[in-house]
Amino acid sequence: MVSIWWLDNRYCNDYASSTGWMYTMWAALMLISGILTLLVMRKGVEWREAGEAREAQESEKAEVRSV
C-alpha cells in the first residue's frame, strides 16, 4: 500500500500538525484560483477581442496566399 507522507502519523508527533499543512495548501490553491477567476472576469473581454482580431488577420493572410 502506498503511504501518503503528509497524512501518515509516523512522520509527525500528532495528527493535527500533519493536516494543518494540507489546509494551508488548500487555502493557497483557493486564493490563487480566486485571483485568476477575477483576472479573467476583468480582462476576458479584452483577450477575446484581441484573439478574434488576430484570427481575422491570420485568415485574411491565408486567403491572400491561396489566391
Percentage of residues in strands: under 5%
Arithmetic mean pLDDT: 82
Number of helical segments with 4 or more residues: 1
Structural class given helices, strands, pairing? mainly alpha
Order of helices and strands: H
CA-to-CA gap between the ends? Answer: 64 Å
Major sheet description: none
Radius of gyration: 24 Å
List keywords for this structure.
single chain; 67 residues; mainly alpha; 1 helix; elongated
Notes on the protein architecture:
The chain starts with 14 loop residues before the first helix and ends with a helix. The chain is mostly helical and 67 residues long. The mean pLDDT is 82. It has one helix and no strands. The protein is elongated and about 65 Å long.
Concise account of the structure shown:
With 67 residues, the chain is mainly alpha-helical. The protein contains one helix and no strands.
SSE layout:
Blueprint: H1 15-66
